[in-house]
Design a protein that fits this description.
Distance between the termini: 64 Å
Radius of gyration: 24 Å
Largest sheet: 5 strands, antiparallel
Helix content: 40-55%
Shape: elongated
Structural class: alpha+beta
Strand content: 5-15%
Number of strands: 10
Length: 303
Amino acid sequence: MKIINSISEFHRMVSLPEPLHPLVSVVRVRDMRFAEDVAWEHFTLNFYCVSLKKDITGKVKYGQQYYDYDKGVMTFVSTKQIQSLNVPHAEILNSEQGAGYTLLFHHDFLYKHPLAAMIKNYGFFSYAVNEALHLSEKEEKNIIAIFEKIDEEYQHIDRHTQDIILSQIDLLLNYSNRFYERQFITRKAVNNDLLTKMETFLNAYFEDEETLKNGLPSVELLAKTFHVSPNYLSDMLRSLTGQSAQQHIQAKLIEKAKEYLSVTNLSVAEIAYQLGFEYPQSFNKLFKKKVNISPLEFRQTFN
């Protein structure tokens, strides 16, 4: 697997001049010409990549699926995420790759700025392929304006350059957050269907003693079951209900625990094991955190 360590190296691999700034660059997709195809079969970047692309000749694979760039979409790739490019060699060398922009920035560029710590909170950097951001025409113009402002700013590097570019990257990510929230709303019918399926899955999971022997359900299990990424699942649920996927799991668990405590004679320890906890203390701690009283105190309210 090819590891592309620097933005300069990326520029060379797509037949572009050296970047004007070693830690940040805006690339016009139409200017890219891939110098070789072997390196693109499996590669990873040692920097962040935010792209707005459309009408792309080749398809970029991320995980097990390919991005479809026939229409304008935004994608966000964090460091060390495995990708691959699927396109014939001659086509790579000789044709334009489509339209749009790609912003590349190294984590070192963020040092001493709040973004260095905050960037990990943007879940869309680990969304799956089918969770790309689809923009309206107006949204697309806003994003393009930011790309062009960043590109313009590093043409003349001075002591203000970094702060101005970082403020633009911050603005770009905040806009992206807003547009993803809009996308969750416009796809509400699909997302509500997913929410219903997840509730049904969790109900069945907590009813099945054999399944619970494998332990508590995890966000990763839910994401895998419904073919979405864990971060996308949590962000989508939070936009619909105000709760993350983990909070949904815990709410369902507490609901089932209350049922056991109110209608059975099982001990608290037995209920904990029944619900998939390895240690009863963990169950007690979670129950008290969510209900504000212990399991035993809750049971006593029914006596």
